[in-house]
Specification:
39% strand, alpha+beta, Aminopeptidase, globular, seven-stranded mixed sheet, 5 helices, 7 strands
């Protein structure tokens, strides 16, 4: 047993866990629901990291990231199933380290729905800076919600 957050590639056997975690996050309006097929495609896509987050040999969430040709790593989705235990913070710190120290990215970025204030505060605490707001960019049920685009640059990470 280790007291570190670990990432491993998502497998087909993880789909039930992923879909259940996603449904919980979707109920709060934080992520869109994907089909099993969409997750399987993402698991196979080149330059996409679809990974299970583990702590002490148990699954505590999943992450989807996409690396583009401009050395930008997009944090597309981060879902933590065990809240208020520091797993989100540890996962983001590990993602930043991987982005800048392993993948040699120039920029790590994400978008977050404006009503997800706890995530916004966490991203700000971990050095992400607001780049702007995409007004009413995401359809949620019968309404549209705005998203905040945030990023951290390699030079900011290295400070």
């Amino acid at each position: 047993m280790t007291n570190e957050i670990l990432f491993r590639s998502s497998q087909k056997e993880d789909l039930s866990f992923i879909l259940n975690a996603e449904l919980s996050a979707h109920t709060l309006g934080f992520v869109a629901l994907w089909t099993e097929g969409e997750h399987l495609k993402a698991m196979e896509r080149e330059n996409t990291f679809h990974e299970i987050i583990e702590y002490n040999d148990r699954r505590v969430g999943y992450v989807i990231m996409n690396l583009d040709q401009h050395d930008n790593l997009e944090l597309m989705r981060l879902v933590i199933t065990e809240k208020h235990q520091g797993f989100g913070t540890k996962a983001i710190e590990a993602i930043k380290k991987r982005a800048f120290e392993v993948l040699n990215c120039n920029r790590l970025w994400l978008d977050v729905r404006l009503h997800n204030q706890s995530a916004i505060r966490l991203y700000e605490f971990l050095g992400f800076i607001e780049e702007g707001v995409l007004r009413k960019a995401v359809k949620l049920e019968e309404d549209y919600v705005s998203v905040k685009v945030m990023s951290i640059l390699k030079e900011e990470y290295e400070v």
